[in-house]
Design a protein that fits this description.
Blueprint: E1 3-8, E2 11-16, H1 17-33, H2 35-38, H3 41-53, H4 66-69, H5 73-92, H6 94-101, H7 105-120, E3 129-130
Antiparallel strand pairs: 1-2, 2-3
């Protein structure tokens, strides 16, 4: 299993490539399925990036490019809300998702919690670290 990282502004955390790629695939499905998020233009652009990127990024370099799409605090807040809704969807859909993704809902939710902690700059989270300048 190869390692990658989720980075946003001054913080980052390790992740597995499979976690990020699974996030990109399933979060894209969730955007498409949810009318609220389907109507958000910048999230739709990011969704298209996720779909184009799955399986095309170099081993160990998987990147969801958060800084490119979360360009202001309003978008960050909206995406953090998306993550909470997405987590609820993951838990409710666990059976089919485990079959499709090969990861339990717990592992999928764990990744989104790490992303949320990075977005919040929460250095009390065990995997979040400050980017060394």
């Amino acid at each position: 299993m190869s390692w990658s990282m989720f980075r946003f502004r001054e913080h980052w955390a390790h992740a597995h490539d499979v976690q990020q790629e699974t996030f990109m695939a399933l979060a894209a499905m969730y955007v498409e399925a949810n009318p609220t998020y389907r109507a958000v233009p910048w999230l739709r652009e990011w969704q298209a990036f996720w779909l184009r990127s799955i399986g095309r990024q170099a081993n160990g370099l998987t990147d969801v490019c958060a800084d490119d799409y979360l360009t202001d605090d309003g978008r960050v807040a909206q995406f953090r809300e998306f993550l909470r809704d997405y987590q609820s969807w993951l838990v409710a859909s666990e059976g089919p998702l485990v079959t499709a993704a090969g990861l339990s809902a717990d592992k999928l939710v764990e990744f989104t919690q790490t992303v949320d902690a990075v977005l919040a700059g929460d250095e009390t989270h065990p995997t979040v670290q400050l980017v060394q300048q």
